[in-house]
Amino acid sequence: MSLARSVTAGDPAPSVAGLAVQSEGLSKRFGRQVAVDAVDLTVPRGSVYGFLGPNGSGKTTTIRMLLGLVRPTAGGHRLLGERMPDHAAGVLPRIGALVEGPAFHPYLSGLENLRRLDAADRTADPRTASARIGAALDRVGLGAAAGKRYRAYSLGMRQRLALAATILTPRDLLILDEPTNGLDPQGTREVRALLTEIAAEGATVLLSTHLLSEVEQVCTDVGVMHRGRLVAQAPLAELRASAAPRARVETDHPSEAALVLRELGLVEVATAAREATGVLGSVPPEKVVAALVHAAVPVRGFAVNAPGLEELFVSLTGEGFDVSG
Ligand SMILES: Nc1ncnc2c1ncn2[C@@H]1O[C@H](COP(=O)(O)OP(=O)(O)OP(=O)(O)O)[C@@H](O)[C@H]1O
Fold it and tell me: What is the ipTM of this complex?
């Protein structure tokens, strides 16, 4: 019996069940402008998925569609395996979202603001409210500033309070739009550590960012947006491997050189008119040179190209990424 047939009607297919977010052809037009163009997201459960792209590439609009804050022009999606928006009532309480800061009251303290939000959550037990709110404030590093009025909070503190609001109750999925925006370096480090911790506890985290370094530091998976399109999506380790250092041998005898590269254990060995290339892996470049000499392959030039993730993404999008932070 096929796996597909063992699933009862109406159940999501097993592959879908393994995904925290899945979209098909998700699209949004604003008048003539296509802001999001047929995006197929696959966010594995338990991953920290970096939704990476320059400003204006469509990340926020995609996130707003995922959360049902804006209606797609075309396409659809599932969250935690459930078709949206049909199952919104059951699924949304399991999701924490940070999109545009929640409406915090300027004259109430951070603590009082969280109390209000918590009280409005019908799924939260009022008897454990104080412990829950205190823990959330501590986790985002606002314990000491809990009694301060929101209007006196810095941008970074506001961002942390918004984050605290998303983790008041345990969530299966966090969807965060630029969660480290406006934070100082220390705050940025703390929030990144917190996200890693939340993921280690079993939740899936989808965060948008324009910082490649953020993806490299916290994410297990990445989706790259460019002008409304998802131009790449893969586990980070896979992308790193495809951006791995490659040896390039300039020679009039490319097939002989390729043979040497293969024998040494280089992978993805390829030949062109006057060159042979291969991914070095753990083979040191000097060993390649020595082997070529030993095999008497006439070499005119030798180079190691290590494109790195940044170069790989730039080649995909034709645009640079902000690598600071
Ligand atoms: N409500 C709207 N009406 C018209 N155009 C919009 C609207 N919202 C977004 N856009 C346009 O859609 C495109 C994608 O914007 P979006 O905010 O989704 O990008 P982004 O990648 O999140 O960038 P940023 O980080 O600057 O928010 C932009 O060109 C933007 O101007």
Answer: 0.94
